[in-house]
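Q: Convert this sequence to structure tokens.
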Amino acid sequence: MANDVKTWSAIEDDGFIGLVGPILTCDQDPFHYRFDAVTKHKNRAGFVQGGMLMTFADRAMGTAARSHVPDRRQSTVQFDMQFMRAVRIGETVDIKCGVLKETRTLIFLEGKLTVEGEVVAAARGVWKIIRG
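A:
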């Protein structure tokens, strides 16, 4: 069906993400992101570098944390990741993010990284809201 078709836009960033990206955001779902694993993402074993998966999850979850307040400044203060299987070059990695809790000063999130529906990694983190 036509309404099931998702469209994607690149997250604009002239910093670090500009070097390792593009990271795409789903135009219909501010909690869904993806990237295509290409040669620049490989580690010495020929799989996607774990640091790329962590970077991807950190940026996606941080962006999701800001989805209702786009101009809010925040910073990652804690981040955990568990890897279930290696990601191959050529695969597309998706993450669905969820806000677990938000307080006046902190936002708690989780994300599941998948390749074609298979969970390849899971992440949890805490973001500090920066006031002033």
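The CA atoms of residues 43 and 49 lie 5 Å apart.
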